Amino acid sequence: MEREVQRVRQAFLSGRSRPLRFRLQQLEALRRMVQEREKDILAAICSDLCKSEFNAYSQEVISVLGEIDFMLENLPEWVTAKPVKKNLLTMLDEAYLQPQPLGVVLIIGAWNYPFLLIIQPLIGAIAAGNAVIIKPSELSENTATILAKLLPQYLDQDLYIVINGGVEETTELLKQRFDHILYTGNTTVGKIVMEAAAKHLTPVTLELGGKSPCYIDKDCDLDIVCRRITWGKYMNCGQTCIAPDYILCEASLQNQIVQKIKETVKEFYGENVKESPDYERIINRRHFKRILSLLEGQKIAFGGETDEATRYIAPTVLTDVDPKTKVMQEEIFGPVLPIVPVNNVDEAINFINEREKPLALYVFSHNNKLIKRMIDETSSGGVTGNDVIMHFMLNSFPFGGVGSSGMGAYHGKHTFDTFSHQRPCLLKSLKREGANKLRYPPNSQSKVDWGKFFLLKRFNKEKLGLLLLTFLGIVAAVLVKKYQAVLRRKALLIFLVVHRLHWSSKQR
Amino acid sequence: MSKKGDGSAVKDPGAEPTLGTNPFEGTLRRLREAFHSGCTRPAEFRAEQLRALGRFLQENKQLLHDALVQDLHKSAFDSDISELIICQNEINLALKNLQAWMKDEPGSTNLFTKLDSAFVRKEPFGLVLIIAPWNYPVNLNLVPLVGALAAGNCVVLKPSEISRGTEKVLAEVLPQYLDQRCFAVVLGGPEEMGQLLEHKFDYIFFTGSPRVGKIVMTAAAKHLTPVTLELGGKNPCYVDDDCDPQIVANRVAWFRYFNAGQTCVAPDYLLCSPEMQERLLPALQSTITRFYGDDPQSSPNLGRIINQKHFQRLRALLGCGRVAIGGQSDEHDRYIAPTVLVDVQEAEPVMQEEIFGPILPIMNVRGMDEAIEFINRREKPLALYAFSNSSQVVNQMLERTSSGSFGGNDGFMYMTLLSLPFGGVGHSGMGRYRGKFTFDTFSHHRACLLCPAGLENLNDIRYPPYSDRVQQLTRWALGSQSCTLL
Q: Where is the Aldehyde dehydrogenase domain (chain B) (predicted)?
């Protein structure tokens, strides 16, 4: 393991990954891989999650292609240095932020969107000029295998490598030193990752999870609301980190919600959901059993059918759920939707705030003031109002959690920024040393006053002339007073400075 | 606060240690309750806190000056330009821009979300902890505090117990100005800090050494608390042959010996050719004499070492290599003369740890390439300096190395620019702050998308069942656009 990481580090140190052209080439190669090997990729995802090809394509591959295109289009601009506003003391200098790669980054993926959650961070890591070690989830075996097979065929084999394995291998991997770790997964392992990172002072981005609440107000169109929720909840058989985890609503709405979700499920997946090509399965037996245990003692309004052999769990809704029961204690990550009745929006807000900050928050209402209040009085990674999932889709948005749902964010430019060091640079000239005398000891009160003047004012081009005159006048007075003997030399110096300033301000 | 639930989903107020055994329990509970009450959210509250902080600085200038003299023998000039003015500047900037910073940032929408309202909301994290060191005790406590308050958080401030004078002023006087529901100063040494770190915070901002940085991050990991770590390292300073040695000497010496070298971004060691070294030594001597006189110990412009422990540590470093300039010390005064060491070996202690004192070792290299190789073999520093008349050399140094920040042909002048963020990379730290960057550091950027409640027809395309026709249409529509979604 150590040798593998060393090899990648050596490759990074060679400097190969840094030129823009190289990064663009790699991204283009990645794009080719996705397009040319689409069938293989889809087949892998499909067999891991019993997903239809269309779903795999539309949920994972499309997003990846979009992200690559977005990166290709914008990268040339992103890699350039960004000048910043200067002050009086630095007005003749170059001041800017230079993005630079961090080095060797580790991306640990999850099994629920096994392709997307590896490739989307990878795109940004490559774009930022890093070398990357990829650790796909071992639970989505087929995707892990296909990634290990395909990536070396298209990308630089020393800069970007795939390491597969289980808990043991991951633990070993985490002992190595990286320059950034991006982990997608659960809270428990998130803590382990951060603790391992702390030993090397490695910054981390943790995309975790939680119970994403979904508040349904009285004042809404329940038909539409239930369709949207059904779509977001049962997509990927509920195994989505930003799926609406549970519903909060007034008790009187429960029956209608149940009815409408039931109808929508029928519309989406047919009479016999098990036979719908668009309905997925639970990833493995362990999770199947886990979700099953959440149903114990609950009032199943509809659904609840299971088949262990195929790891099938029907779209299920629970009503009158007691917040203290197991289904409300952990992220469900399955096609079970509890409804917890609350009396009003105040209670809903309190309920949400008593719990860990979720990755997503959903609120459905025609009343914009209520939506605003929900947002103002709670916290979460992100929010979608009157729909679910959609805030994930905007690549201009940072996607990430807060509190126990995670730290850091990525997608689009945010991935580039996550994997870059934005290095502040100030470049001066070795000339104009006279201007520095102000700061050198021995000090005096006038220097203090001048220090205040220069440090508390911002550089304003329009005031340049006036400031210059004042500066000249006072400097002249100070100098005459203190440095009689070297006056002539100083006067010449100031003349030159002014001349240069005048010249350079003319040039702007 | 609510009762605990049975599992992890319901918040146990941060898995707090047993009531009564931890001295900070009460304070933290009070601050958390205040945050939940929402009192720190309105702009006016935050602005008032910032104005109060400004008043604290203005009304207690003498007190602060005296404390800085007591702690670090800092002259009024040095205190003003490196501590008080900087803080004032930050407060002014925050007050001026608070509304703009707090405003929701619009997000750009794509084809499928054109009808929505998309924005990023800046939210306070909640209860944040700021741990500050002793070398710029006012600056490094208050500048993060400005951003934390501006961002609407409740703040626990932990000043360093080593800079006792300043600690006292911050503990006794500062709380009188700020709203004590939302702000507290906690005191203590390593043991108390350990107890403090057992608690859950929503953000931890730490300035100090990499060693303690690891401890802080490990503690933060237990609660999944995000951190900003402003650490340190050995900041290299490359001096090219194509330079005026006197100008270089002026600039390097000023930044090296400021605050008796106790600056995280000070040039830690020089890299230059033996020929350049020959020219630099007399130039450095001349500069030191000019700045501090023939007897630097009597100069009011030279600071002192913070305490005996560091004094002893630095005195031991004087034995490395050969003293070319300075080398004197006075234990009683905790004084170490502005010193330059030559003939230093890489394995010697002065090249193994961050010096943090008025000692400047010179390492010889044969040229820029060797200097870059030397630098890249070591941990990424907080700052990196390169002096050359050739902009090509300066740019090469910049491109082929990594560091928190970079100064070309000068020392840490960039610290005066609030438009530049300040932070480390690798062992020198993670995260960044100053100016708006502090506000952003202490804010959670929450992506919000408000979709239309109606217009459901537009969504039909995303719902199953996916007939062949729908599949084809979707592939075509999405394949020809650069948008990421279903």
A: 32-444
CB of A2 within 8 Å of a chain B CB? The answer is no
Domain limits of chain A?
1-208+411-425, 213-402, 461-493
pLDDT in tens, B64-82: 999 999 999 999 999 999 9
A356 touches chain B (CB under 8 A): yes
pLDDT digits (tens, 9 = 90+) for A439-451: 787 866 666 666 6
State how far the Cα of B204 lies from the Cα of B430, in Å rounded to an integer: 12
Residue B35 C-alpha, separation from nearest chain A C-alpha, in angstroms:
11
ipTM: 0.93
Find the closest chain B residue to A68 by CA distance.
B482
Residue A440: per-residue pLDDT: 83
Reported in sequence order, the residue ranges of B259-369 that DSSP labels E, i.e. its strands, are 269-272, 322-325, 329-330, 335-336, 339-342, 359-364
Please give the Cα distance from B177 to B168 (Å, whole number). Answer: 15
CATH code of the domain made up of B2-231+434-444: 3.40.605.10
Mutate to test the interface with B, among A87, A426, A436 (most CBs of B within 10 A): A426
The residues, ordered by sequence, that sit 6+ positions from B357 with a Cβ below 8 Å of its Cβ are B260, B261, B262, B305, B310, B313, B314, B317, B336
The answer to whether residue B16 is catalytic is no
In the numeric block, the tokens 């239309």 are attached to B452
Q: Quick one: tokens of A4?
A: 């593998």
Q: Which residue of B has its CA nearest to A120?
A: B484
| Four-way CATH pick for A213-402: 1.10.132.80, 3.40.309.10, 3.40.50.970, 3.30.70.920 | 3.40.309.10
For B321, list phi and psi in degrees, rounded to 5.
Answer: 60, -140
Which range, of A15-24, A434-443, B234-243, B260-269, averages the lowest pLDDT?
A434-443
Separation between Cα atoms, residue A400 and residue A411, nearest integer Å: 9
- Among residues B183, B209, B173, the alpha carbon closest in space to that of B60 is found at B173
Segment 85-104 of chain A within 8 Å of chain B by CB: 85-87, 89-90, 93-95, 97-98, 100, 102-103
C-alpha span between A60 and A64 (Å, rounded) = 6
CA distance A157 to chain B (A): 23
| β-pair partners for B446 | B121
CB–CB contacts below 8 A, A to B: 349
CB contact (8 A) between residue B210 and residue A201: yes
